[in-house]
Amino acid sequence: MAKVLTADAQVTCSHQGTVKVAASQHKLKVDGSPVLVLGDLEGKKVDNCGLQPSTSTTPCTAVVSTARGAATKLRAGSKPVLLDTATGITNSVPPGTWKVRSAGQTKLDAS
Fold this sequence. Notes:
Helices cover about 0% and strands about 45% of the residues.
């Protein structure tokens, strides 16, 4: 089982930049923090990406997509919750990735 992500989750790009996390739903909460659902990370800003810009590289500034890590059984509203196994793509050149550093809670597991 994996931990469910909340708005307190820590998500980073592959160059150690920080993704600004925000929840779109507020009905399902863990320790008062709303749970993240599929789609919540897309378009979110990435701050302090460590990729140095050059003629062939551009740092991450936003999350593009979620590749995996959505729960198959637990939903909030009609959307699957996100798990600490979630990963995806950022908009850097060449394309970067993002991953979860911390779920933001330790009580709720899902698969």
